[in-house]
């Protein structure tokens, strides 16, 4: 039986030392190909104006932009420390990117201003996912696409142990567990989506997580 959700945080990672450790973790996930980039592109995420919600160090959006080319990248992030890190990483990628501070429930961005919206690993931190889904619908242009990837709380126990033991640096392992306990099941996500203004939404499970995608 799947245990109930345990809320993690809705303020992001703020402390500088933790930010540095998370950057190492995010780079390792990128290098392993475990950060959802391929899944996002496979759902139809393409060029144009791209928004990443909760970019953290920025690697997911930067990798999508690098693979697709001809992308204007914007990130909306709640943590100023993460924004500073993402800007530095964008310079290393030599990809022009804009990062704005804001809560995903009320993004400081104009209506219908993006062709694509992505997010990886932040859904479980959203205080009110329905409001964020509605914000995605608001900022997307007609025909625009979105893809959200995250952990899945009801993944098999052996998979949880496999990912836990594979997580580097080891200092991130307790954080992985709290994130996992705060993550959603497919059924829970489907209930939330029914309450949102997103009219076209598909949800599927993968090895250790889930993907939500669709078009406006």
TrEMBL record:
Keywords for the protein's UniProt record, in alphabetical order: Methyltransferase, Transferase
InterPro entries for the chain: Methyltransf_11, Methyltransf_Superfamily, SAM-dependent_MTases_sf
GO biological process: methylation
Top-level division of the source organism's lineage: Bacteria
Gene Ontology MF, one: S-adenosylmethionine-dependent methyltransferase activity
Occurrences of domain Methyltransferase type (ranges): 51-148
Protein name: Class I SAM-dependent methyltransferase
Species: Zongyangia hominis
């Amino acid at each position: 039986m799947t245990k109930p959700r345990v809320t993690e945080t809705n303020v992001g990672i703020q402390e500088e030392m933790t930010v540095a450790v998370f950057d190492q973790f995010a780079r390792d996930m990128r290098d392993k190909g475990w950060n959802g980039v391929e899944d996002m592109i496979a759902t139809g995420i393409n060029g144009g104006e791209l928004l990443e919600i909760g970019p953290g160090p920025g690697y997911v959006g930067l990798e999508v932009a690098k693979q697709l080319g001809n992308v204007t990248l914007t990130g909306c992030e709640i943590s100023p420390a993460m924004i500073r890190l993402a800007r530095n990483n964008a310079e290393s990628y030599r990809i022009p990117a804009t990062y704005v501070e804001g809560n995903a429930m009320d993004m400081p961005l104009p209506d219908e201003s993006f062709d694509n919206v992505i997010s990886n690993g932040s859904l479980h931190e959203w205080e009110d996912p329905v409001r964020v889904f509605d914000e995605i619908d608001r900022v997307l242009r007609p025909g625009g696409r979105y893809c959200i990837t995250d952990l899945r709380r009801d993944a098999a126990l052996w998979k949880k142990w496999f990912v836990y033991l594979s997580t580097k640096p080891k200092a991130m392992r307790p954080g992985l567990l709290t994130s996992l306990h705060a993550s959603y099941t497919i059924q829970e996500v489907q209930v939330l989506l029914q309450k949102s203004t997103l009219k076209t939404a598909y949800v599927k499970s993968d090895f250790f997580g889930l993907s939500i995608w669709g078009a406006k």
